[in-house]
Every structure is written in C-alpha cells, then in structure tokens.
Amino acid sequence: MSGFFDIPSDLQHSWLGLVGLHLREALLPVLAGLVVSLPLAQLCVRLRWLYPPVLWVTTVLYAIPSLAFFVLLIDYTGQTELTVMIPLTVYSLVVLVPAIVDGVRSVPPETLAAATAMGFGPVRRYFQVQLPIAVPAVIAGLRVATVSSISLVSVGALIGNQGALGNLINDANIYNRPELAVNAVLSMAVLAILADALLVAVRLLLTPWMPRAGRRRPAADVPDPATAALEDAVR
Amino acid sequence: MFGVLIRIDSVTKRYPDGTVAVDRLSLEIPDRSITVLVGPSGCGKTTTLRMINRMVEPTEGTILLDGQDILQQPVNTLRRSMGYVIQNAGLFQHRTILDNIATVPRLLGWGKDRARGRARELMERVGLDAALAKRYPYQLSGGQQQRVGVARALAADPPVLLMDEPFSAVDPVVRKGLQDELLRIQAELGKTIVFVTHDIDEAVKLGTMVAVLRTGGRLAQYAPPAELLSAPADAFVEDFLGADRGIRRLSFFPATGLALLTTPIVAVDATAEQIAARATGEAPYLLVTDLDGRPLGWSEPHELTAGSIDPGRLLSHGRPFVPGTDSLRAALDCAVLSPTGWAVAVGADGRATGVVSQQTIAEAIRGAHAAVPTDAPAPHSLAKGGPADAKVAG
Amino acid sequence: MNLLHFINAFFGDGAHWHGYNGIPTRVGEHVGYTLQALAIAALIALPVGLVTGHYGRGGNVLAMIAVAGRALPTFGLLVLMTLLVGFGMVNVMTPLVVLAVPPILVTTYEAMRSVDPSPVDAARGMGMSEAGVLFQVELPAALPLILGGLRSGAIQIVSTATIAAYVSLGGLGRYIVDGLYQRDYEKVVGGATLVAGLALVTLAVFWALGRFAVSRGVRQRA
C-alpha cells in the first residue's frame, strides 16, 4: 500500500509540488483581485451612485457556481490554470470591493476634514490617511478571499486535473485511496489557516495603532470590524 | 423632615484587577427628596448608583432600602421597584414610544391596555405630546427621548428613581428645560431620587442633599447645596465648586427682605410737580414707568420734561427681579447689569414695586451672611422654585 | 456561440420541462437541499451566536471556528465523506453545513455585540430577566444583521449545492455536471442560470423577511 504522501504519478508532481501549484493558483487571483479592486473601490467611494449597481453585479456573479464558471471558460481558455484563476479573481473582487469600500468609508469624516484642512491633496490623503485606516478592513477581506480561494481551487480537479491538491481528490476516487482525499482536505485546510494567520500577522505589523487584545477591553474579543459586512461577499 | 429611605453603609467596590471604584462609602439618602452624587470622572458615583439596584454588586458593606438589605430581595423584583434613567435615555429602538414607557408595567404583569393607558398618562405628565405615542425613538429629538426615559422610569410608580447623568447628552437650553421639568414633577410626585452628575451647577440646582465624591471613590462632603457653597469641607471640594461659589451661594437667600425705595418712580405722563416731588435725592435717577406702572427706563431728573418724556431716550433698566420668588443673586445680577447700578423690583404682574441700589443689596448680603454662620446651612427655600418643593433643611 | 443563445436554447427545449430530469423537479430538489442545509446550519449557529454574543465571550474561539470552517474545502469534504461513508444525503449536508455555519455564527455574534449597550443597560436596570434582555431587546435590534448572515449562508448553499450532483444526487448541479461530461454547454449554461436565478430569489425572500420581521424603528435607523 502506498503512503500518505505518495502521489500517483499521473499528477506529475510531488506533494510539495502540488502545494506550490495550489498556492500559485489560489493566491495569484487574490493578488489580481486586490490590484483591480483598489481603484474600483475608490471609484465606488467617489461616485456614490456606482456602488449599488456594482454590488448587484457582484452578487449575481458570485451566485454562479464555480464549476459552471470553469466549464464556460474552457471554450475560451482551454483546460488550463487560467480557466481556474479567472473565476477566482472574480470571486476575490466580489469579496474585496465591498471590504475596501466599507473600510475607506469607515474613516471618520472629521479625520478626513482634518487631513484636508492640514493641506493634504486628494491623492496624498488617500495613500497616507484613508488607506492606512482602511487596512484592517482590507486585510479582513483578503483573509476571506484567500481562504475561500484556496478551497475553491480544488474544484478545478473536475476540468481536467487543474485543481492542484484537489486533483488528489479525483485520484482518491479513481484509485480508491481515501487517504489521498484526507491528505488533500487536510493540506488545503492547513494552507488556508496558515495563510489566514500570515494575514493577521501582516495586519498587526501594519496597524500598530490598533488596540491590542486583552487588558479588560470588551472590544478586544470581537473579530475584525469589517467581518460582519464581509459575510455578504463570502462564497 | 423626612426619614431615611436608602442607607449605604461603608460600601466598597473592588474589581478583580485591584481597582477600587468605591471606598468605604456611607450615605443616608433621605426619603422624598433629590440626593445628588457629584464628582470628577472616576470618582465612583455611577458605581455607587448602580450598586443601589444591584447592577453592580458591592464587595463589602451593606445597602439597606427601607431597612431591608437589598441583597435579600430577588434582584429583578428590586429593580422593578426602582425607576432607572440613563444618559442617552437607552430607549428600545424597535418599540413605539408608548410601548417603551409601558415596559415595566408589562414586566409586572399588567394587561396591555392598562399598561398603555398608564403610559399615556405619563406622557402627559412629562410634557410629551400625545401625538408622539405611535412614533419610534429615532423620530424624537434628544430632549424628547430623555423625557420618554423619565416617563418609562416612572411608569410603575416606583418610590425610588435612579438617574445616571440623564441630562448630560443634551444641549444646555434643553438641559435647563429638563431640569426644571424634573423639579416640577418631583414637586408633584415626591419620589426618592438619586441623581448622578459631573456638573456641580446641576447638583446645586437639583439637590436637596449633595454628595461630593473624590477620585478613588471616597466621600469628600455630604451636605445641602447651600452649606456646600458656604462651607466646603476641604480644598478639593472648594476647587470642585469653582471660583464664584460666593455668588452662586446667593441663590439660596431670598430677595424678599431687601429695602425697596418707592419714591424715585414716576409715570411717563408725570407733571413737573410730580417729577420734582419724586426727585428727593435718595437716588440719582428716576425710574419712568408706563401708564400701567411697568418700568420703561431710567433718567436723571433734570433731563425729564413734563409732558414730553420720550421713552426711547431713557437708559435701559435691564432685567427686573421679582422679590417674592427671586434670590439675592438675581437681584444683584439686575443691579450689576443695570447702567445706573440700580435694580428694578417688579411684582408678578410686571409692575414696578420699587428700586434698590447695589449698595443696599451688598448690605443685605452681609446681613444674610451674619444671620447664618458660614459653617451652618443657609435657608434654601428659593433655589428649587415651587412652593411644593419638598426640601430638607440640613 | 454566446450565452444568450445557450440560455434560449436550454429554456426553449420542451424536454427540459418534464420528467425526473425536468427543471421543476431539479429546482425542487435544489431548494430542498438548500432549506435542509440552511435549517441545520441555523440550528447550530444561531443559538451559539446569540448566547456568546449576549454574554460577549468566546469571540476569539468563534473566529477560529469560522476560519477552520472556511478552510475546509467543500468539494474535498464531499468526496471524502462519500469515500468514507458511501453515497447519501449526509455526505452532501455535511459540507454545506460546514460552509454555512461560519457566516451565520460570526454575523450573529457580531450583530449581538453591535447592539447599542444603553438600551440593554436600561432593560437590566428596569428588572428584565436575562432571557428578556436577549429576546426582547437585543434580538430585535440585531435582527437586520442576523438576517444578513442567514442570507449569506443561504446564497452560499444555493450556489454550492450543485456539488450534490457530483456524488450522484439531484439538484441543479445535475445539469452542470452532466453538461460537463457530455460536452453539452447548453446544459451547463442553463444550470448556472437557474442557480443564479435561485440566488436572486433568495435575496428577494430575505428582503421580504426583513420588511416583515424587522421593526420600523430599527429599519429606519440602519
């Protein structure tokens, strides 16, 4: 019998190779989503009327099952990583845009007024005041997007082994080796939790001004401020 | 003189992290009167209030309500027997004004109709328009919300009312209205009110007794407000009272005893003889009144020409005071603000009853202080307004 | 070769409207899975979220549970369950419930925590019991957010219940999975359109629920 980390040769990767592939397929879309959503969110903040229609479109987009999304793209991008990564980018957008909009909007108006009064131009004000204060909300969005992206890559296994660690699930079925599926599920869960922890660490580094947990502050055991708003956008 | 309703006996509140919020505090809170707990933030005044309805449990000491240890009673029964008013009112946003007020009667098991009927009565009592009954809290102003808060606390007619900085979130004009309203309601209902504030003026205005607490939860002084102003126990209390406590203390002396001059007053249609007869030199000015006797303004006698007195050329008489209801402070204020240095006294109908100089008022102040030694409470029948005001004189 | 053409063809085909593989049957199955999974998830997450939110404790533990729940890949869990316990409803329900519990749990907790503390203080001060405070003061004020959490959970289930087809069950996923293997894009597009439509219906249902269940006094403030 083969061991837990013995990967069937048809996958053409070692376990570590699959992990690397998985991370690439999951994280690149989140990164792309962040790059697109920052200007898009800023646009929604500046043009208030734009936000509701953007929310409607994104809600419909994320209601489309990932598998259907993949299948529809095969015609255009073939059975490639790109076919998996495009929908994941869209889903990341869906999570990130409201998170960033809410985060930027959560900056108190008096803070903005003070910044303007001190002579900050709109661009400086965005990068030096609004964005830093929105960091907790943006990171909260990134956490949700990253974790669900890592989970969704596995569905790519159904369109010709494009699911990285998810392909193990297919092989578990084909070779009747349940331990491969256990391996896949656990590996993905561990990756997701590690990525999540990493993002929390990044937030702690970027926001030394936030009150730390503990010390009799009732607010301390509340999760991220933007979490509630984000749940809407989770897949 | 009333009895003691709530007895706080060397009560201490110490939190698990070692912070002492209240330190061996003893207070006797008189029946049917307003007792104010005042002090800077962190002095434990709110903690003390919240220990009375067991929102906070004391670490040591006992609190007796009508002779009974409050820890002996079921906590919710105790709380339902005490009205509770907090800052920002704390209204239930999902309930109408009427249902907000009916909360405690409903908790006590009243039927819906009876509770709502009672709520309607209370809306009227606290000066809320009946048309607001079906509104929701978000549709009311801050002052109106606070009135609803008071009505809700009174709904089950509890003997005790606990008020935790109830008026500190509204603007000064609304606050003054709410304070006057509270005094009026108290004159009608005679509740035992424990009132927490950080505003010493509010404490002096509302309190029958005022307890000044210092940081660390220790009692600095417990006295009627006039005594507090005249004889602060130590530098902390004196500092907390502020610079002009001498002036403020005058609020507690009636202006009734002032020797008013009635000679230097002439009507606007006075003849030359009348003007001459009135200009006796007792006062350098003559007060001119209209034909009904209401003050118009001051003038030097030689500038008045009989038959052609022009009210527009008179010196302003400032705001007059009413000897029967105003205090020496009001009289002094009138004299200080008057360009002639003389205050005008009027009756309740607005007609001038006499004039009085700053000098005479100063003598009256000296006399009042001499009559009441500074280490004893001054009489204070005036500051709280209405005659039905139930006060304890020390 | 465009989406509208596929959609037209799919819904225009009379054969798709009848029998065990007809649209009404598949929609019914899909709604059935959704309601079941949502009910189970709500039954687990709502009480826990309400009580922890009421006492304001365990937020960190809840956040960890939520992260763990999201980290478990739904598709992997489905196949794993099938390999371990064989085919059946339990395999489908487990991943869907795991998917929906985190948003319901976290949102409920957050909603309870975000209730204005002063009415709660007033309610306690007036002698309301803890259950009274929870159900008569906090819950009505927190309801809009709680419904929002349930709505996210419901939409995620609607979208993800398609995986049931991968383990030989019904639902709208049948069209997508069958379409994938038969290279029948018309079916895939049709299935996806139906799922998206069902998601919009879910949004509408929750909107109506909000109008009906949330007090006007709360709605106007939000």
UniProtKB/TrEMBL annotation, chain A:
GO cellular component, one term: plasma membrane
GO biological processes: glycine betaine transport; transmembrane transport
Protein keywords: Membrane, Transmembrane, Transmembrane helix, Transport
Family label: Belongs to the binding-protein-dependent transport system permease family.
Membrane topology, record value: Multi-pass membrane protein
Location(s) in or outside the cell: Cell membrane; Membrane
Top-level taxonomic group: Bacteria
Organism placement in taxonomy: Bacteria, Bacillati, Actinomycetota, Actinomycetes, Kitasatosporales
Name of the featured protein: ABC transporter permease subunit
Predominant place of localization: membrane
TM ranges: 26-47, 54-76, 82-101, 133-160, 180-206
UniProtKB/TrEMBL annotation, chain C:
Database matches in InterPro entries: ABC_transp_perm/SBD (IPR051204), MetI-like (IPR000515), MetI-like_sf (IPR035906)
UniProt keywords, alphabetically: Membrane, Transmembrane, Transmembrane helix, Transport
Predominant cellular place of this UniProt entry's protein: membrane
Compartments in which it is found: Cell membrane; Membrane
Bilayer disposition of the protein: Multi-pass membrane protein
Transmembrane segments: 33-55, 157-177, 189-214
Residue ranges of every copy of the ABC transmembrane type-1 domain listed in the record: 31-206
One BP annotation, GO: glycine betaine transport
Domain of life from the UniProt record: Bacteria
GO terms under cellular component: plasma membrane
Record family assignment: Belongs to the binding-protein-dependent transport system permease family.
Protein name: ABC transporter permease
Organism: Streptomyces lasalocidi
